[in-house]
Each structure stands twice: as C-alpha cells, then as structure tokens.
Amino acid sequence: MGFNLLNKIKSKDSSWIDFLFYAVCALLVVIVLCYFIFSFKINLQSQKVSEVQNRLEAFNADEYKKAEKEVLYYKQKIDDFTTIIKNRKISSDVFVFIEANTLPNVWFSNFNMSESKNKIKLSGESENMEIFSRQLQIFEKSVNYIKDVKVLSLDTQSTGIIKFVLDISLDPKVFTYKSDSLPEPVNMENQPLN
User: Fold this and answer.
1) Which residue intervals of 60-175 are DSSP H helices?
2) How far is the C-alpha of 47 from the C-alpha of 53, rounded, in Å?
3) Domain that holds residue 57
4) With 55 labelled, which of 72, 86, 100, 183 sits at a CA distance of 20 to 30 A?
5) Mind listing the pLDDT tens digit for each residue in 73-82?
6) Residue % of the chain over a pLDDT of 90
7) What is the largest distance, in Å, between two alpha-carbon atoms of the chain?
8) Model pTM?
9) Same domain, residue pair 125 and 63
10) Is residue 46 domain-shared with residue 105, that is, in the same domain?
11) Contact 109, 155 (CB under 8 A)
C-alpha cells in the first residue's frame, strides 16, 4: 500500500508538473510569435518612415530649393510692381480733363505740372476777356477735380487778346480716374457771366 500511495502522490505531482510544463511551453510559443509579429510590424513601419524621409529629402533637393528661390524672387518682383501701380498717378487723365473743359477760343501755350504738389501752371491766351472769364468759371465749377484756381498774371494786348497764367490746385483723385470716368465738359458758352 505504501508503494501505491507513493505512486499516487508522484502521479499527482507529475500531472501538476506536466500542466505547468505545457503552460510554460505555450507561453513561450506565444512570446516567440509576438516577438516575430512585432518585429515584422516594426520593420514595415521603418520602411514607411524611410520612404517619407526619402520624399522629404527629395523636396529639400537643390532643384527644389532653386525653384523655390526663383518663385520667391518673382513673387517679390510682383509685390514691388503692385506697390508701384498702387502708388502710380495717372497724369494723362489731367490732360483729358483740361482738353474736355477748355473753350474753343482759349489756347494754352505752356503747361507745368507738379504731381507731388497736385498743381498745374497753365499759360495761355483767350480771344477776349469774356471768354477768359467763362474759362475761369469752368475751372472753378469743376470742384470734383479742382480745389483752387489762382490768376497769377493777366495781360490785355492791343488786339484784345488776353494773355494769362493760371495756378490750378488739383484734387489728388483726378490722378486716379480713368479717362472714361471723367465728366462731360461744362458748356458755358451760352450761359451769362455771374
């Protein structure tokens, strides 16, 4: 009986040890499988990181840097040109304005313009004093474009012709208008003098 009992104890210990042995083996197999799975995943991620780094290096290549510098250079030129255009004054519209508002019997012989001061100095002649007065009224009534008109000199010739010099202060907006936005000329020929 003693031998049988010893066999039973050994058999109980043996099944417990067998269970423990198989559990450790299964755990070892799971660990090895996890190791290989994670190694494979890490390898895939490393390849993707390498591809992204290669793409980034391609963007940082000399060709791209040169192209970027060239684009920035042209962008700066465009910005500079835009600034110039925004600050540009259109003096041709002043000529259109004066031409549209000059009476037929008035001639201008000298024209000096200072865009920085927004002033024009006009020298000219008119057929007589009445026409000169009408011309002066036309300029004075153009309050949207002319701020002030001063007669600097006035000389009556023996033939009746009036020689004059006018100093005209312009509104700065006359330099920004387009020719097609200037007003129709003032018709003062048939209006009485004030």
Assistant:
1) 62-87, 92-100, 129-141
2) 10
3) 2-85
4) 72
5) 999 988 888 8
6) 41
7) 166
8) 0.49
9) no
10) no
11) no
